[in-house]
Amino acid sequence: MTAASVAAPGGLPDGLIAVVKRDCPTCEFVAPLLVAIADRQPLTVFSQDDPDFPAGVDAVDDTALDVSFALGIDTVPTLLRFADGVETDRLEGWSRPHWQALTGIGDLGADLTDYRPGCGSRTHDPEIVDARLVAATAGRLQSRRVELGAGEDELEAMFERGYSDGLPVVPPTAERVARMLAGTTREPDEVVALVPPDLTSCTVEKIAINAVLAGCKPEYLPVVIAAVEAACTDEFNAHGLLCTTWFSGPLVLVNGPIGRAIGMNSGVNALGQGNRANATIGRALQLVIRNVGGGRPGEIDRATLGNPGKYTFCFAEREHDSPWEPLHVERGFAATQSTVTLFGASGLQGMCDQLSRDPESLARSFAACLRVVGHPKNAFIWDAMIVVSPEHARVFREGGWSKTRFRDEVAALLRLPGDEIVRGAGGIAEGMPEAFAEHTLPKFRDGGLHIVHAGGEAGLFSAIIGGWASGAVGSEVVTREVRS
Amino acid sequence: MTRTILDPTGERTATTRERAARPGSLAGATVGLLDIGKARGDVFLDRLEELLRSEGHEVVRFKKPTFTKPAPLDLRHEIASKCDVVIEALAD
Predict the structure, then answer these.
(1) Range of the domain at B45
(2) In this predicted model, what pLDDT tens digit does every residue of A91-150 receive, in sequence order?
(3) CB-based contact (8 Å) between B68 and chain A?
(4) Which of A86, A210, A253, A358 is 20 to 30 A off residue A53, Cα-Cα?
């Protein structure tokens, strides 16, 4: 038959169909058999790499792989039978008894070896998969195309157009954005949030573009999307966090299996540089706020000093050997769920205690250091996150202290006598209003101390991360599940 | 070489609005005083109220629920409907 006239998917002919490529020794091996089969019954051969192959058969050109993708071909050769437009049988590679059964030709390849495995279909070549993905997605992207001038350096162009946080960014080509979007099952045009301060509608596509800028890998995208969702809630109040003169910016804590799956750092130098996921997820969130939300420093961001964490402040909790339940479990999620928790963070204060070997002493050290968050004479104003290192955590584990007990003991130690913290007390004008002089005030509100476990094995140091105006007045901690 | 990229911004342009006409004088005007909720903003506004009242002006006081968020729409509407001018205190 003249197979070349047969149209591809949707119009596949009944009879036998073979999918082959010249660059496959097994296909070369079965080529004479295909000629023999075609002489005796309807056979359509699709060639993935050379329409002149096999010789003697009028193969259909499938170098574009449309038929191969439509048929879900994994291996070549693949031999199929179609009846009434429906696939009724399929086999891969060369197997004499199976080919004989499928073709109904009892002596087919009688002098050939019984079995010979096939080769990988071109549909699985990485560059083919990528090209199809890009072709399928890039055309659907709705963002404005920005043409760069012929003489422009593309990295410099990113700075000049205001897209950067001050460090070089990756130019977001349609191809890169399409690859980034492969990291989520969500549609590019799905609206995720209204991003402050401009309350701009932000789609998955816009988040993906900024994730490209930040240097994310596609598998980070679901975490970035969840972080944007959490940041753009009224409770988290990213608007206020941004425009305040305080130091604050969003801290992204990752809990659950995704942290390990995407290679986040919860160990040595967890709060520092050097891990791509930690570095770029936090950065992507800040770039969304800058580029989509319009929140730029010196404009609506009025921070007096800011803090280095405003480039990126993202890490994973060290869950596998923590003495305590991880933060997301404490906040009502299952240990097997992956979450992001957003905290309005103002920077990091090192906490040193190399001598305490019992939890009572260590808790007193934490309380003494926590007292200075904001100001030693401020009460009930700021929240704080405590990042307890493994060596400090060991002291609590060996002492049998739960996280609740640790928090309660610290809170009890931080009930501040009003007469010590009112304005003017101790010769310091800063402080609480005089009306509190006769009261005892908690340093932190209920629910204002957030405790997580991270860091390297060595070092009797932990971190205190001060917050911003707490609760309904300012920012609440917000947790959101990471969805694929 | 990359020549075309996708716009990472919200693709919005800010609207420039005309400022409301400034009154020639405060004679007969009702003055709103908006405390945004920052520390000691009340000290500043108390003194302004005292001065305005001593000059015979009607004064209405308002306060935002929190200084960290934009004023609620209802509050902005109430100020606009009750006052001819408003003074907003930003203090620390």
Answers:
(1) 30-89
(2) 999 999 999 999 999 999 999 999 999 999 999 998 888 888 888 888 899 999 999 998
(3) yes
(4) A86
